[in-house]
Amino acid sequence: MKRKANNISSQVKESVRFIRSKVSIRPRIAIILGSGLGDFADTVVNKKTFETSRIPHYPQSNVEGHSGKLIFGKLSHVSVLAFQGRIHFYETGNLESVLYPIRLAHGLGIKTLIVTNAAGAVNRQFNPGDLMLITDQINLTFENPLRHLRLPIANLQLYDVKLQKLILQVAKENKIDLKQGVYCGIKGPSYETAAEIEMIRRIGGDAVGMSTVNEVSLAVALGMRVAGISVITNLSTGITTEKLSHLDVTEVATRVRKVFANLMSRVIEKIT
Question: Which CATH architecture has domain 2-270?
Answer without folding.
Answer: 3-Layer(aba) Sandwich (3.40)
